[in-house]
Automatic annotation (TrEMBL):
Residues 423-454 are annotated as: Disordered. Pfam families: AAA, AAA_lid_BCS1. The lineage of its organism: Eukaryota, Sar, Stramenopiles, Oomycota, Saprolegniomycetes. It comes from Aphanomyces stellatus. It comes from the Eukaryota. This is AAA+ ATPase domain-containing protein. InterPro entries: AAA+_ATPase (IPR003593), AAA_lid_BCS1 (IPR057495), ATPase_AAA_core (IPR003959), Mitochondrial_chaperone_BCS1 (IPR050747), P-loop_NTPase (IPR027417). Keywords: ATP-binding, Nucleotide-binding.
C-alpha cells in the first residue's frame, strides 16, 4: 500500500549521518553511503527520480505531494512558436509526487540503491515558521562505490540542465534556500520573429555567434579573461527586450537564470553565491538594473542590503563558470552609473526604440502577404503623424485583426492611433493625480510644521 504522507519523526546523530535503525539491512557490511544536503541542486532531482524508479511497488515507502507543480513539461508559447507539440496538448498534472521521509529502495541502470530522506536536528525558526533541516543519504551495497553514486547524481543534474534548440528552462533564485529552482520550461520564439531594425539584429547575432565559438573560448582562456559576454538592452518599453532575450536563450540552446536584485533580502554574498552556482553556458538576466542605484550610487530600494560594489563584483563574474551570456535591461540608461556599464563590464549596448518603417513592414509580413507590407507601412505612418508606436503595440493590433482580411487590416489602422491617444490621455491623467496628491501631502506637512512652531 502506498501512502502519501509526511512522517513526523526526525533524527539526531553524532557519528553516522543517520540513525542505524533507519538504515537498510546490511548497511554496515561494506556498504558505501553519501549524504546530500537539502540545499544542493541535486536534492529535488533525486527525490523525484526515486519516487518514479522504486525497486518494487510493494516496498513500504512514503511520498510527498507537491500541489501546483506540473510533472510533465510545461511550455509557454510566444509569437512565432509552433503549438503542435504533443506535450503542449496533453492534459497537465496539477501536482507532482516525490519521495517522502523514510527509506526507499530504487533502481538505476539495473542496480539497486537505497535513499533515506530524513529530518535532522531541532526545529529552526524561519519567516515561514519553525522548520526542521532535511537531508538524504544514498546507500550502495558495495565498498568504494562513491564513483557510482556520483555518476548517478551527475546524470540527474546533467539531464536537468540539458538544453534543446528552441526550448529552454527558466530558473529563479530562491533566496531563503540559497538555490536555483526551475520555474518552467519555455518554448522560445525564433530569432526571425524578433522585430529589431535589421542592421541592429544582424550585428548582435554576429557578436553572439563569435562569442560562442571555440576560437573565442580559446582566446579568452589564453589571455586570462573571464569567458563571458555582457549586453545592456536599453530603450523604450515594449520595444522587444524581453522577446530578444527569449530568442537568444532558445537560439543558442542555453537555459535562462533570472535574478531580481531588488529583493530586500538579497545580500552581496547571496548574489555572489547565485552567480557561482549558475552552470556554464547559461543566459543570466538582470532585469531593470536601473531600479537598484542612482547615477550617484544612492540606493533606490532603501531596505536592500545589496551594495553597489557587490553588484559590480557579481557582474565582473569572478569565480563564475565559463560561457555566461549576461544581459542587463533598463528603460533608463541615462540613470546608470558609468562604472556599471563601462567596457569589460558591459561589452555591447543594444538600443531599443519605437518602431520604424522596416520593422512595421517585417511585422506585417509575418501576418499578411509581404507584397503589401510597404503599402501598409506608409499608410500607418501617415495615420500616426508625430506619434510614437512600440512594436508591442503593433503586435497587439495584428492580434486584434487576426480574423480580418488584409484589406480590413489596412483600413483599420486608425484603431492603433486611437489606442495610443487613449493611453497617453490615461498617462497624463495619472500624472496629474499623482502631482495633486504630492501637493496635498506637502501642504499638510507644511501646516503641521506651522502648528508645531506655534
Amino acid at each position: 500500500m502506498v501512502n502519501i504522507l509526511e512522517p513526523s519523526h526526525h533524527v539526531l546523530f553524532n557519528a553516522l549521518p543517520f540513525e542505524r535503525s533507519n538504515a537498510p539491512v546490511g548497511y554496515d557490511n561494506d556498504w558505501t553511503y553519501v549524504a546530500v544536503s537539502s540545499g544542493d541542486k541535486s536534492y529535488r532531482l533525486i527525490l523525484d527520480y526515486v519516487a518514479n524508479h522504486l525497486r518494487s511497488s510493494d516496498d513500504h515507502v512514503s511520498f510527498q505531494l507537491e500541489s501546483g507543480k506540473k510533472k510533465s513539461s510545461r511550455f509557454i508559447f510566444f509569437f512565432g512558436g509552433d503549438d503542435d507539440d504533443d506535450d503542449a496538448t496533453k492534459k497537465k498534472n496539477l501536482s507532482s509526487v516525490v519521495a517522502g521521509l523514510g527509506l526507499h529502495a530504487f533502481e538505476w541502470e539495473s542496480q539497486t540503491f537505497h535513499c533515506l530522506r530524513q529530518m535532522v536536528g531541532t526545529p529552526v525558526g524561519t519567516n515561514c515558521g519553525a522548520v526542521y533541516a532535511e537531508n538524504l543519504v544514498l546507500f550502495a551495497p558495495r565498498r568504494a562505490a562513491e564513483p557510482l553514486l556520483q555518476a548517478f547524481v551527475d546524470q540527474l543534474v546533467a539531464a536537468a540542465e540539458a538544453t534543446t534548440k528552441g526550448v529552454y528552462k527558466l530558473f529563479r533564485w530562491y533566496i531563503r534556500r540559497g538555490m536555483w529552482k526551475d520555474a518552467q520550461k519555455v518554448r522560445a520564439r525564433s530569432m526571425d520573429s524578433v522585430m529589431l531594425p535589421r542592421a541592429t539584429k544582424a550585428k548582435l547575432v554576429a557578436d553572439l555567434d563569435a562569442f560562442v565559438s571555440d576560437a573565442a573560448e580559446t582566446f579568452y582562456a589564453s589571455h586570462g579573461i573571464p569567458y563571458k559576454r555582457s549586453y545592456l538592452f536599453h530603450g523604450v518599453p515594449g520595444a522587444g527586450k524581453t522577446s530578444l532575450i527569449q530568442a537568444i536563450a532558445g537560439h543558442y540552446a542555453r537555459n535562462m537564470y533570472f535574478l531580481q536584485p531588488t529583493h530586500p533580502k538579497l545580500t552581496d554574498d547571496g548574489l555572489r553565491s547565485a552567480i557561482e552556482q549558475i552552470p556554464a553556458n547559461s543566459v543570466v538576466v538582470f532585469e531593470d538594473i536601473d531600479a537598484l542605484f542612482s547615477k550617484t550610487r544612492e540606493k533606490k530600494v532603501a531596505d536592500s542590503p545589496l551594495t553597489f560594489s557587490g553588484l559590480l563584483n557579481a557582474l565582473d563574474g569572478v569565480g563564475s563558470p565559463d560561457g555566461h551570456i549576461v544581459i542587463l535591461t533598463t528603460n533608463f540608461r541615462h540613470q546608470l552609473d558609468d562604472a556599471l556599464v563601462r567596457n569589460g563590464r558591459v561589452d555591447v549596448h543594444v538600443a531599443f526604440d519605437y518602431a520604424v518603417a522596416e520593422q512595421i513592414e517585417d511585422m506585417f509580413a509575418g501576418f499578411y502577404p509581404s507584397e503589401r507590407k510597404h503599402e501598409f507601412a506608409v499608410k500607418l505612418q501617415a495615420a500616426l503623424g508625430t506619434r510614437n508606436m512600440s512594436t508591442a503595440a503593433l503586435q497587439h493590433y495584428f492580434v486584434t485583426q487576426r480574423t480580418k482580411s488584409v484589406d480590413e487590416a489596412m483600413a483599420n489602422v486608425g484603431e492603433i492611433v486611437r489606442d495610443i491617444d487613449e493611453r497617453l490621455k490615461d498617462e497624463e491623467k495619472t500624472k496629474m493625480e499623482e502631482e495633486a496628491k504630492e501637493k496635498e501631502e506637502e501642504e499638510a506637512k507644511k501646516k503641521l510644521a506651522e502648528g508645531e512652531a506655534k
